[in-house]
Amino acid sequence: NEDNDHLVKKLAGKSYRDDATLQDLERAKKTLRERFVVGLTERMGESVRRFNIVLGLDKEETCKYCKSCMNTYFGAHPQKSNSNPHPELQEDDPAWQLIAQQNSLDMQLYDYILQLFDEQKDLIERTYYPTTADTSSSPADTGSIEDAGSVVSME
Predict the structure, then answer these.
(1) What integer pLDDT is reported at residue 143 of this predicted model?
(2) The whole model's pTM is what?
């Protein structure tokens, strides 16, 4: 089906009309690992903070309004102006099970993305904060937007 495993197909360079394979899943994982800083909607604040670090938007001289914006949308009392409520499916819901079954490679890719998100935390920590990588008080651990560091490539 052309609607199934959409992310694996896109990241593996396949057409939406093609069927996705385990080889495509491995290609998609490699693409993510080598070319992307991944983010998670359920960890949006941390994800955007990482994107800002990698893109150099965390520096005071780059964007004097970035901190205010980040605090507005991800601070202690975030505004949800660009958010829409929607029902959540539980894993025991038949609709969720059908979607998971028809997108099994995308589900495996998501599990990999969760792992990669954690690994990239360590990579960003070592790359952007090399002097604090062995301490527990580094900016990447605290999640403080004000403490973000300098930029280098993830590759």
Answers:
(1) 42
(2) 0.73
